[in-house]
Amino acid sequence: MENRPEVRDFLMSRRNRVTPEQVGLPAFGNRRVPGLRRNEAAALAGVSVEYYTRVERGNLQGVSDSVLDAIALALRMDETERAHLHDLGRLANASPVRAPRRIAKPTVPAAVKRVVDGMPGLPAFIQNNLFDVLYTNPLGRALFSEMFQDPTCHDNTVRFVFLSPVARRFYLDWDRIARTAVGSLRVEAGRNPYDTALSNLIGELSTRSDAFRVMWGANDVGRFSDGTKRINHPVVGELQLEHSAMTLPGAAGLSMTVYSAAPGSTTEDGLALLSSWAATNVTAPAAASTET
Questions:
Q1: Residue whose C-alpha is closest to residue 118's, from 258, 270, 282, 264
Q2: Residue from 14, 80, 4, 6 nearest 45 by CA
Q3: H helices of 93-222, where?
Q4: Among residues of the chain, what percentage have pLDDT more than 70?
Q5: What is the mean pLDDT of the chain?
Q6: What whole-number percentage of the chain has pLDDT above 90?
């Protein structure tokens, strides 16, 4: 698989963000690059300048995992970036080349649906690796009611972030959420380069959203992890929700996301109010499913 442009852009972007001071090197003279020079990155990785130049130009064929680890360490990559570099390496050495294919949305197991339905007081939903919401409980549908009501979003949380006119009001930390979404899509692109639906989604967002296009060009990678999201809901106002995501074992590409509130908090009261609103304004869980 020919992925040299992606490898080149990713490694150059990582090298350019590391300053000599961060790695204990003197920064003498007029530096024409924003970060490390290639010879400095090569020395830190323990490889020759010629070899490092070959790698940074996108040629990962035959490059060992130990060399990739050394480069990741030299460029101060985090765990997600290191894993992405290894994904790019596996893709560069894969053979034979396979044609792009459309990967069908996985089916949400009935037992998983029962788990989601069994948390009526917590917004919960199931997503695939494209961030399509495949199943949700009534409170989850109420929390993201604007996304589900917007035909542009197609029940997809990343489309909601970048294409919905209300997303910047809904997410009080929109920039952080947006950058994480872009980074997560780049990780998926490294893992599943033959997924036509994924390529189409990235192409659609690049065409329709200037913000996405700029963020995609930064070559950053990331993952949604447990933490806090601040949401300004149109019905109940501001909510500070603890966010937990977990990969479902035995269900390729599926993950469960659950939001919760600190006991005794105003957000807990807001969720209770939202639950009451959902009981009369949101359809049942079966209608919330977007499985095909």
A1: 258
A2: 14
A3: 110-117, 138-143, 145-149, 157-163, 167-170, 174-191, 196-208, 210-217
A4: 91
A5: 88
A6: 68
Place of tokens 């060009």: 217
13: number of Cβ within 10 Å: 15
Closest CA to 180 of 131, 235, 146: 131
- Determine the straight-line distance between the first and last CA of the chain, rounded to whole angstroms: 30
CA distance 176 to 186: 16
Give yes or no for a contact between 77 and 187, defined as CB atoms under 8 angstroms apart: no
The tokens for 135 are 């199943």
Q: Are 161 and 174 in contact (CB under 8 A)?
A: yes
Token pair 């290191």 is found at 82
Q: Is the pLDDT of residue 290 over 50?
A: no
d(CA 209, CA 110): 36
The set of residues, in sequence order, having a beta carbon less than 8 Å from that of 143 and lying 6+ positions away, is 123, 231, 233, 259, 274
**φ/ψ bin of 76: left (φ > 0), alpha (ψ from -120 to 50), beta (otherwise):** left
Burial 134-160 (b: 16+ CB within 10 A, else e): bbbbbbbbbbbbbbbebeebbbbbbbb
Residue 65, both tokens: 């995992």
pLDDT at 103 over 80: no
Strand 124-127 with 237-247, pairing: unpaired
- Cα separation, 192 vs 90, in Å, equals 11
The C-alpha R_g of the chain, in whole angstroms, comes to: 22
